[in-house]
Structures are given as C-alpha cells and as structure tokens.
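This entry is listed below:
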Amino acid sequence: MTKRGQLIQLRPAPSVDEMSDAGLVAACAAADRTARALLFERHVDVIHRFVSRMRGSDADAVDDLVQATFIRAFQGAARFKGTSARAWLFGIAANVVREHARSEIRRKKALSVVADELPRATEARDAHLLALLPALVEQLPHELRAAFVLVDLEGERGCDAASALGVPEGTLWRRLFNARQMLRKLAGGGS
C-alpha cells in the first residue's frame, strides 16, 4: 500500500528477449551474459556482412574482426549514448577494420624493411620472412628492438616514440636505422 491506501501494481521487468537494443547495451554494460548473447545474435549477420565488404574475402580475418567488434562493444557498452545500437556497432566495426588494415600495413612495411636488400622476393619468400620477423626482432638488442617495434610495427611518430623511450629524437632515428640494418643482416640480406 502507498499513502492514502492505494495499491501499486508492479509490472514485472521485461525479459532480456523483450529489451530494446539500447536496453541490451545497458545490460551488457552490467556484464549480463544473456544480454551480450542476444545483442550478438541480433546483429552478428549484418556486422559480418559489413566487415566482409570492408575487409574482403579472407574469411578467417573477417570472423576475427567481427568477434573483435563485439568484444570492443561489450567493453565499451557503458559509454553508449546513442539510440541506435546497430549504428554504434557499425562505427565500432569500421574502427576495428581500419586498425586492422593499419597494422597490416605496418607488418608489411616492417617486412619490406627486412627484405629491402634481399634478392627479388617471391610471395612464398615474403610469407617466410613475415613468419621469421618476430624471431628476428627478438634478436635485436633491447634499445634497437624498442625503437623498431614502436615506429615500424606500432606506427608511432618519431617524436612520440622518442618521448616514450626517454631519448632525444636523433637517438631514436639512429637506433631505428641500426635496427633495420641488423634485421637485414639477420635475414640474410648483407649490410
């Protein structure tokens, strides 16, 4: 009973299946597994289609990017401010695909740094070098490895990488030059 003797009829909370997308995202922010599964089920097909159109025909990469999209959505659900979860998911997917493309470019750039002075590389040789790159990078001294990873693999600007390492920018560029040269030698490319 309330004041004046009136009864309040409580309506049961809607089940997760009945929730709007915005409600599901709010439940995802509270780490509700059922809400996460339902949001995924509702939107996975359209996000998969979007990512495959953005990414191309590599089915494994598309699946990984779709999964990364939903993981990022679940992690950022508390920051959702919109009314359209679908548009929000498209935005997240576009960012995930963009970041993936950038990291692919960085990996290819790092590979080309190693392969620059090698005999004409074939696709098989490129794949082999790409597979070897992590082991080659591990052989670099720490200072050279840090410069190479920050600039060539992570895509940091020189001034930011130098600041992160606590060295002058000129020192960073010298270390990067030495790292590239050493990687070429380790890969069999001479000096």
Remarks:
- The CA atoms of residues 115 and 125 lie 9 Å apart.
- The chain is about 70% helix and 0% strand.
